[in-house]
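All the exercises in this workshop are built on plain-text protein records. A record pairs a protein's sequence with a compact description of its fold. Backbone structure tokens are a discrete shorthand for how the chain folds in space. Once this layout is familiar, the rest of the handout is easier to follow. As an example, a complete record with its sequence and its structure tokens follows.
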Amino acid sequence: MNDRTASAVEAATTALPFRIDPVTRRVSIDAKDPAFFQNPYPVFEAIRAIAPVFFWEELNVWCFLSADDVNALYRDRRFGREILHVATREELGIPEIPAHLKPFYDVDNLSMLEREPPVHTRLRTLVNRAFVSRQIERLRPRIEALCHELIDGFAAKGEIDLIEAYATPIPITVIAEILGVPVERAPDLLAWSHAMVGMYQLGRTRAMEDAAVAATLAFSAFLRGYVQERRGKPGDDLISQLIAAEEQGEKLSEDELITTCILLLNAGHEATVHALGNGVRAILRSGADPATLFATPESTAATVEECLRYDPPLHMFMRYALEDLEFGGLALKKGQQVGLMLGAANRDPNRYLAADQFDATRELKPHVSFGLGIHFCIGAPLARLEMQVALPILFERLKGLRLAGAPSYRDAYHFHGLDGLQLAWDG
């Protein structure tokens, strides 16, 4: 390590909450430190300047910061979301699932998000027809009406928490209606979803695990009852379509049906809530003119993509090495996990000019917020449509929209979303 590198390391680690050994590329980051989860981007930029590929000690994974590496890893079929289809626990030294977590993983392990082909292909094919762009576009009038209905309910107040009053009801209502689940059960769906998502957060506790298991059991019981009801009274909804597929022998078990519904309900709202909140925060802090941002369908689409690039709701995606391999000069053993750092890749200065600035007029280049490859987010067309509809209506209806308090991010890394977003506007 030369003197310049040593000075850079000392300056970075003094000012930011991490520690790095530039020789071994081992990094210590406390994900529960507010100095990190409130704004992780400066930490990763400081690490990038020293080691764009680093070993995160607390997670025991090699992490990749560059946009090129993340893109390549997403598409490299030597990496996958599961590992036990190609190796045993004994072979890899992976411990058995603790008894208290078994109910959660009995459901989670059937999710298409956690599977590789051919199981992933079979499950995704059955669901994909409901989420193609031409099908999703038909929802535009319903989403527009919902946005106006919500704003009608709070426009006279002059100040609201956007997350609670607007960003949350839109996606949970839409995904519930797509699936055919009663929208009036939204409070239960949200509570179950929040508890289950806690299993994917860094630094989870036994209390979080117990809450996730309880939510999994309650969610599954509710859906089993609802599926049984739908068997005798099918409707024009996705659950009825999946039941029909199961009954027609398209290789969908009831357990897989229940897990698929849970996945779609959780993923169908959780990320979009925070994409909307993070996006509004970014727009307001940028000082950009909303009238210009949303002047045309093209500018609206560009603004939404910049929101998703600049401050995405998911910051890390994990993959297993499915064999002994070499990637980017790094030797990885079969079963070793790697971290694809989505938020950092979206701020890669080698791909994006002034990457740390919000600029909806920048040259459009693909971001990685929805993933790539076979696990590309199946709900991406829906999330994009919800944002393209909800953001222009919000800024058009509430003139002079502004921050009414300092936004604070949740202690929930590797998810990245606001606890709340207090906004005010002109009367």
Summary: DSSP finds 19 helices and 14 strands in the chain.
